[in-house]
Amino acid sequence: MLDIKRVAVDDDLKKLVLDIRKAQWVPASEISPEDYSVEDLNKFLIHAGSVFVVAYSEQQFAGMASAKILNKPNGFVWLYIDEVDVCENFQKQGVGKEIMNYLLTFAQESDCDEVWLGTEVDNVPANALYTSINPSEIQNFIGYTFILKK
To answer: Phi and psi of 29, rounded to 5°?
Structure first.
């Protein structure tokens, strides 16, 4: 049984960070577990619209996702999903799909007009996941990164 929940500031963030650090991550996920800290997670969670979701399977950490509810100046509201990451030992077991379904339901309940996410063209597992949940549109685009701190 998979338990998915939205993390709040008053949850046990210390335990959560330890779970993230102990989890097995596939190299393609680009997760650096040592980068996660209680302080940084708290900073993320206190910002309006921040969404952090975790998944546990029989009390074992299985995955996580981060997102933001964004308001455009024209009144349009959308959920931007930044990351969906599934632990290596839970890959291909439906965890990513359950996290996505949770986020889609959350967006609907939050009165969002749209949900948007992107992934690399060569990320075959992610593209298979997102295609399997019948997106309204699949876009081709070029992304640009501007690194401000090293």
So the answer is: -75, -15
Signed CA dihedral, 32, 33, 36, 41: sign only: positive
Are 46 and 40 in contact by the 8 Å Cβ rule? The answer is no
Closest CA to 107 of 78, 84, 129: 78
Q: In terms of pTM, does the model score above 0.70?
A: yes
Determine contact, residues 44/50, Cβ cutoff 8 Å.
yes
Per-residue pLDDT tens over the stretch 96-137: 999 999 999 999 999 999 999 988 888 888 888 999 999 999
The number of beta carbons lying within 10 Å of the beta carbon of residue 66 is 19
